[in-house]
């Protein structure tokens, strides 16, 4: 079990006073779990039948647990990014939730709805844990030096409206799992090093209004059905191996492209 | 039969023999045992580089020997060592002390491990060790396996370590109940089981451990009542049972703990009154009973706690008034009675009885009347929090005496009067919350040269302030101009055993900040009657993260200098009378997550690109004539400068499909034209083929 989620050596207020202990060598203070969280999860009285009580207790505990797991997921992202400008300095995993972290926005249920880290001089790579942010609507990571691939788990972000990874050094393919993002409106992956085909699954996202994959190394053909009917061809330019719009009805296309 | 002399000689001979035998088992075996230990670890910093047969054992790094050149102490603290702890080091015949703390050792300690009879001190804390709690030995005096990943129950055999003085099991994954057999360790002085998942009641048997000075069981799932027998441990100096499920009343036998200095019972479900016997604990220095269900009043008896420095009774159901004699506790530094049902007035003496009082937190009670008039000249207060009471009258001028004041929150009261300009000079003031009161009047420009030198959070919302926005103040808020995130580590505002906390409107929601980062900056002047312009000097506040000027009567344009606020995460200018366009410069705010300019008189194209590609219609509604994404109303190309949307590379997307086709057609035409012209020229010039030439009857000279 990861220490981070419940106990981190720190100078936070605690009941243990180092100067009271006569020990040979204890290097660090250590810290309580967050007080506010514990205070908020008082279970209902036990008058009701035991199963109702158990169910409602589990409901009160679950938001606490989930709130913390979103912070853990984001902290995993922090650890895999290099952050010379310290924009992630406020990302403290010992807090009850990430909603007071800078560049994070939550809704009134303390679920993360926005991550705004555009133009932040970040490098390193994305992490699959990002897929756990079920209420995330805006993932803004544009204009950084992020490398590595797009995690397929991003397809789990069922509330996502905008995925902006443009102007980075991201490589690999566009995961077909992004076709699961049924709320997606904006998909901007331009100016990266993406290869492979444009997944046909994206044509199944009826809410999609803006797709920009220009300036990559994509191959195969450009989808023309569904939302792709209204996407200007300029948003696919500067992909030397991209062959142009798909010709529907013919036997095969996207050969030599994987 | 041997006579006495022969017997003595025999004994001496045997002793010498054993000594020599022992000695010959010596260095060779110890060498092997230590090298076996070294072979199962990784030592990236090469601390153990001299662990080889060419160096004398007793000079090896981390090794100390006793007078007989046998290994007595192994100490490898914080050396970044990983791997398994080989059981060979426990077989060193004369080892007394092993300290491997703060490394990355993993794996388990074998359960059949038998320690050397000399081993007194074993410290494996702050590693990644797993498995069950290791066996003990009768020689062990200090066992510290805290901050690891040990799991399972605390074994009942723990009672075998009957000579233990200190037992540290904190910060692991231990489950189950605290075994009563632990009381066999009669000499135990320090027992820390905190930060595990222990359940069940605190065993009564603990009361047999008469030497116990320190009990730390915090952050577990212990339940039931605190056994009254526990308070027979008169040596107890430090009792910490925080963050458990303890219920029932605090036993009155607590008064027996005459040596108690630190009592922490916060975050439980304790009920009933504060036992009067608590107030007989003359040595009590820190008392924290907050986040429980305690009721009743704070008795006058509290003044008996003559050594008390820290008092937290917050988040209970306490009623009545603050005892008037509380000011007799001259040692008190932190007084936190927040979130109760206390009433009455705030005694004037609280401002001037002591210069040691540093934190005064009375938030969320029912105090009424005016705020104490007199703060003494050497006022030592750093944090005054009266938020959420029924206080009235005006703020006292003597607040200016509190030169150490870092935070003042009197929000959500009925305070009247004009802006307390005497606060401008406070050199340390970082957070000022006057939100939701009845303050009125104009914010005068300060005659002070550097008003509010350290102010980072200013909340004047929900009052009746009028007049223009205080340009003279804004342009001098130095702490909002050059805060650097290059500070080496994250820091929160705190006092002694107290985190500062505040509630602010952030990104449209009223939110809690249980900790306040030293780089959080925010200005909220919303819901007042400010009029006139938004001064362009606002652009100097480069470190500002949040700005809320909504619900006023501001009537200017949005200054382009706001584009310099590159740290801004939320901007609310809604419900004013702002005119003109939204400046394109605002696209430089690459952290802007929330924008609200609704219900103004703005016109023109909405800036496009970067964060403006992520904002929704709600940000813009109720204006005169805004156009462009995300609004459905498109902008006319009537000569107005319009930045092109990042996602539309051409004006009309249908055209691009046709132009693709036209290119091919034109290419075809072009080629054909050239080809035909060349053929025609060659044909008519040469006169060949004849049939072609006669067909056209062209004579070419």
Which short descriptors sum up this protein?
heterodimer, A: 258 residues, alpha/beta, Leucine-rich repeat, LRR (right-handed beta-alpha superhelix), six-stranded mixed β-sheet, three-stranded mixed β-sheet, disordered N terminus, B: 701 residues, 22-stranded mixed β-sheet, 16-stranded parallel β-sheet, 5 helices, 48 strands, flat
Describe this structure in words.
The complex is a heterodimer of chains A (258) and B (701). Chain A has helices at 35-40, 50-80; strands at residues 81-82, 104-106, 112-116, 123-125, 138-140, 145-147, 162-164, 171-173, 186-188, 193-196, 210-212, 217-218, 220-222, 242-245. Chain A is an alpha/beta fold. In chain A, β2 and β3 form a beta hairpin. The relative contact order of chain A is 0.08. Chain B is of the alpha/beta class and 701 residues long. Chain B has a 22-stranded mixed β-sheet, with no helix packed on it. Chain B has a 16-stranded parallel β-sheet with strand order 9-11-13-15-17-19-21-23-25-27-29-31-33-35-41-43, with no helix packed on it. Chain B is flat, with a radius of gyration of 39 Å. Chain B starts with a helix and ends in a 5-residue tail after the last helix. Residues 639-660 of chain B have low confidence and may be disordered. At the A-B interface, α1 of A face β37, β39 and α4 of B. Chain B: It holds the Pfam family LRR_8. Chain B: This is Probably inactive leucine-rich repeat receptor-like protein kinase At2g25790. Chain B: Keywords: Cell membrane, Glycoprotein, Leucine-rich repeat, Membrane, Receptor, Repeat, Signal, Transmembrane, Transmembrane helix. Chain B: It comes from Theobroma cacao.
């Amino acid at each position: 079990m990861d220490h981070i989620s419940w106990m981190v050596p720190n100078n936070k207020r605690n009941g243990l006073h180092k100067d009271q202990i006569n020990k040979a060598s204890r290097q660090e203070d250590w810290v309580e779990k967050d007080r506010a969280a514990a205070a908020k999860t008082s279970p209902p009285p036990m008058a009701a039948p035991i199963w109702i009580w158990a169910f409602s207790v589990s409901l009160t505990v679950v938001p606490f647990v989930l709130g913390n797991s979103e912070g853990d997921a984001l902290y995993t992202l922090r650890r895999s990014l290099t952050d010379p400008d310290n924009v992630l300095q406020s990302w403290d995993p010992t807090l009850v939730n990430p909603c007071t972290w800078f560049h994070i926005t939550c809704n009134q249920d303390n679920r993360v709805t926005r991550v705004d880290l555009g133009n932040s001089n970040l490098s390193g790579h994305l992490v699959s844990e990002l897929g756990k942010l079920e209420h995330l609507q805006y993932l803004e990571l544009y204009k950084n030096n992020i490398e590595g691939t797009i995690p397929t788990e991003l397809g789990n972000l069922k509330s996502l409206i905008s995925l902006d990874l443009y102007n980075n050094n991201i490589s690999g393919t566009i995961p077909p799992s992004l076709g699961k993002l049924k709320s997606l409106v904006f998909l901007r992956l331009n100016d990266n090093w993406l290869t492979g085909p444009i997944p046909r699954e994206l044509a199944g996202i009826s809410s999609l209004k803006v797709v920009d994959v220009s300036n990559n190394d994509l191959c195969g053909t450009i989808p023309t059905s569904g939302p792709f009917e209204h996407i200007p061809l300029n948003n696919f330019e500067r992909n030397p191996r991209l062959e142009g719009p798909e010709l529907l009805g013919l036997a095969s296309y996207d050969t030599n492209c994987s | 039969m041997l006579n006495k002399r022969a017997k003595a000689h025999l004994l001496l001979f045997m002793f010498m023999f054993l000594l020599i035998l022992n000695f010959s088992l010596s260095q060779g075996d110890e060498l092997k045992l230590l090298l076996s230990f070294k072979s199962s670890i990784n030592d990236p910093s090469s601390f153990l580089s001299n662990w080889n047969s060419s160096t004398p054992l007793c000079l090896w790094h981390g090794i100390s020997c006793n007078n007989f050149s046998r290994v007595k102490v192994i100490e490898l603290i914080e050396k970044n060592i990983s791997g398994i702890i080989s059981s060979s080091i426990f077989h060193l015949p004369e080892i007394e002390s092993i300290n491997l703390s703060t490394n990355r050792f993993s794996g388990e300690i074998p359960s059949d491990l038998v320690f050397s009879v000399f081993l007194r001190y074993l410290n494996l804390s702050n590693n990644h060790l797993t498995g069950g709690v290791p066996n003990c030995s009768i020689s062990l005096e200090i066992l510290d396996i805290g901050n690891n990943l040990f799991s399972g129950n605390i074994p009942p055999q723990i009672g075998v370590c009957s000579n233990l003085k200190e037992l540290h099991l904190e910060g692991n994954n231990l489950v189950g109940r605290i075994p009563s057999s632990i009381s066999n360790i009669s000499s135990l002085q320090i027992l820390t089981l905190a930060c595990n998942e222990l359940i069940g009641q605190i065993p009564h048997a603990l009361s047999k451990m008469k030497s116990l000075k320190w009990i730390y069981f915090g952050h577990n799932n212990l339940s039931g009542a605190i056994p009254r027998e526990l308070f027979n441990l008169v040596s107890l100096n430090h009792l910490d049972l925080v963050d458990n499920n303890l219920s029932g009343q605090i036993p009155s036998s607590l008064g027996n703990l005459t040596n108690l200095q630190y009592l922490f019972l916060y975050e439980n479900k304790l009920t009933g009154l504060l036992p009067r016997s608590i107030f007989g604990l003359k040595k009590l220095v820190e008392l924290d009973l907050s986040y429980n269900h305690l009721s009743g009043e704070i008795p006058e008896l509290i003044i008996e706690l003559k050594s008390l420095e820290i008092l937290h009774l917050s988040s209970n159901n306490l009623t009545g008034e603050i005892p008037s004699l509380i000011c007799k506790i001259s040692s008190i530094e932190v007084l936190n009675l927040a979130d109760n049902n206390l009433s009455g007035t705030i005694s004037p003496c609280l401002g001037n009885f002591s210069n040691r009082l540093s934190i005064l937190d009375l938030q969320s009670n029912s105090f009424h009347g005016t705020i104490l008039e007199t703060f003494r000249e050497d006022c030592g207060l750093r944090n005054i929090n009266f938020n959420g009471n029924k206080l009235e009258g005006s703020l006292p001028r003597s607040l200016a005496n509190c030169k150490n004041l870092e935070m003042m929150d009197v929000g959500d009261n009925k305070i009247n009067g004009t802006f307390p300009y005497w606060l401008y000079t406070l050199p340390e003031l970082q957070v000022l919350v006057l939100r939701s009161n009845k303050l009125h009047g104009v914010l005068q420009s300060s005659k002070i040269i550097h008003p509010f030198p350290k102010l980072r959070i200013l909340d004047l919302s929900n009052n009746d302030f009028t007049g223009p926005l205080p340009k003279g103040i804004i342009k001098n808020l130095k702490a909002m101009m050059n805060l650097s995130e290059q500070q080496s580590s994250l820091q929160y505002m705190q006092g002694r055993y107290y985190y500062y906390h505040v509630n602010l409107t952030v990104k449209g929601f009223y939110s809690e900040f249980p900790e306040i980062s030293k780089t959080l900056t925010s200005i909220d002047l919303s819901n007042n009657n400010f009029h006139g312009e938004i001064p362009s000097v606002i652009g100097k506040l480069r470190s500002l993260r949040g700005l809320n000027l909504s619900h006023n009567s501001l009537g200017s344009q949005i200054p382009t200098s706001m584009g310099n606020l590159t740290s801004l995460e939320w901007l609310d200018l809604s419900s004013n009378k702002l005119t003109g366009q939204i400046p394109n410069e605002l696209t430089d705010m690459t952290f802007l997550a929330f924008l609200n300019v609704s219900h103004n008189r703005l016109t023109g194209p909405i800036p496009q690109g970067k964060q403006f590609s992520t904002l929704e219609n709600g940000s813009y509604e109720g204006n005169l004539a805004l156009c462009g994404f995300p609004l459905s109303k498109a902008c006319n190309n009537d000569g107005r400068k319009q930045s092109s949307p990042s996602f539309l590379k051409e004006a009309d997307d249908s055209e691009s499909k046709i132009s693709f086709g036209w290119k091919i057609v034109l290419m075809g035409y072009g080629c054909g034209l050239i080809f035909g012209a060349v053929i025609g020229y060659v044909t008519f010039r040469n006169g060949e083929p004849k049939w072609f030439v006669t067909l056209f009857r062209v004579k070419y000279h």
